Amino acid sequence: MGDVIRLEKLSKTYGSRRGLAELDLTVAEGEVFGYLGPNGAGKSTTIRLLLDLIRPTGGRAWLFDRDPREHAVEVHRRVGYLAGDFVVDPRQMVGECLAFLAGLRGSVPKSRIEELAVRLDLDLSVRIKALSKGNRQKVGLVQAFMHQPDLLILDEPTSGLDPLVQQTFLDLVREAKAAGQTVFMSSHIMTEVEAVADRVGIIREGQLVALDTVARLRSQAVHRFEITFLGPVDQAAIAALPEVSDLSFDGATARFQLAASPDALIQVLAQHRVAALRASEPNLEELFFSYYQASPQAKEATRA
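User: That's the sequence. What structure does it adopt?
Assistant: Structure tokens below.
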């Protein structure tokens, strides 16, 4: 399988303000890629550059090995896009709007639109201006998924959706992956990305500060331990472990954080009798904030 998305030194500045700084990134065919960062981090800028909605200050982007500017019609035909600020004519009925957009896409069966509307609990007979933000977002999701594109580019796709519809959206992403489609999904909601993404990129102030699978990012992160011993505890041996922090003792129970391999810890524990051991790994949200607590220069992006 080849790369559907390829970025090389992609940069964008807005006057004196930096939007994106020399971003290198590839997304493979059939991959679900989660692009994480808070508002203003550069997520939407990356997507708009990908689709040639804005022009880069430096570097280049390719979709399907095509320049999105030189081959706009060919590239856009293969993409389903949901903008973070999705807007359509508020005077139209939902069904009328989706039928019009389906016509622009070519051949989209009416049954496909109806199926997605039922799954997302979207009423096709109401006027768009009467919809809530969450229901307008459903319209955006239907128009992105309805033609079963090779690449889905989704900018904050669950904004305004209730939890049940969020789960339906995640099901749609899983189905798209199973069908061989590629998904590039930007979000600041870590749990939804963790549920479906093969890899995750974390962007901060226009720079990619982490890039890897969730599992590998976790393996590099700090883990918390709580160990209860039977008998005396060699506190000095635990304190001497590499990368131990926040160490405290409460009687026979030791609590601490470990940012290194647990191999040395296991060797220490082998010299003791252990009554209970609890180790907790960080979830994606905790990993996300750990990268945001450090400067961009302090974290190097790992390449999967």
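Residues 3-212 form a domain with the Rossmann fold fold (CATH 3.40.50.300).
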